[in-house]
Amino acid sequence: MKTMPLVLLHAFPLASAMWRPQRLGLSAFGMDIFTPDQRGMGGGAEPGPYTLDDAADDVAHLLDRSGLGRVVLGGLSMGGYVALRFLARHPDRLAGLVLSDTKATADSPDVARARAELAARVRFEGSQTAVAANLPKLLGKHTHEEAPELVGFVRALGDSRPKEAVARALEAMACRPDSTPDLAKSQVPVLVLVGEDDALTPVADAEALVRAAPRARLRRLPRAGHLSNLEAAPEWNRHVLSSFSTRELPDHDETVGATRGRRRGESTTPGVASDPGAHVAALLRRRGPAGLDDGVDTVVEHPAVVADRHALADRQVLQRLHGVDLGVGERGRGARGHRGPIVECRLLHHE
Q1: Helix, strand or coil for residue 191?
Q2: Cβ distance 182 to 88 under 8 Å?
Q3: Hey, which of 91, 106, 280, 292 would disulfide with 21, CB 3.0 to 4.6 Å?
């Protein structure tokens, strides 16, 4: 099967561990997945001031180090902002874009000021402050009501991020430019995904992306909020595969975990198909940390996945929630040593 490598950029205030259902589900269909962390969000050296243009250049350095030419680049929320800046600065490196639960416009002055104020609070109070401020809208109403384990996973992942990295990310987002003109002049195919219950970047923002991009199409994900890759992982994965893979896909039953009978790989977990991405999504939506059935044995880890100290911490979060090790890690990491030119943002200048 011929596929372009897929690079996925995570949301704020999380880390690459949020892409676990994609690393498992999409790699099972032959896609080569890279999930770097934004500056400092996976640990390592404390980041200094940076812009999202710098973050986009980090991705370009990752591609260079990994020997990659053109890729499909995906981003959710803040990751989408970085993907759009990559489009502006490195358009020749793109074979396609996946823009999930994000927008192209810049922050209004009031929103930028609120980010600056939250960054100051995070430095004083810790990363939990940013998570508490964002968690009610990071996940949809159905997830909050029906999947307490997923809510707990997102909270634990965000709470454990280094506070200076969280503060710097807030400042970088507040200073980002409007990427709409860059999107409008691009001929790159764009897949726009949005959770129908997304309260942070609602469907209207996704529709604006589609209007701006000449070669874009929109897919709405029912019962999902802002973190649609976690809340509707099987559907999210299927849309990416159908857009950027040439391999013939299994039918709907086998890919997205319908409860009807499946022709191969019958799972012991109700409603879970043999697609590992669907399986992980279902595990995250289970009620209670114990009592997982033998269906977990069908979960496999991408052979190239490696675990470091911070990935191990993320694995321990899942172990506490589920009593099972699902495997963690990522193919690539952000180019933490790279420091591009800093664009002065007077509102958010911090030393």
Answers
A1: strand
A2: yes
A3: 280
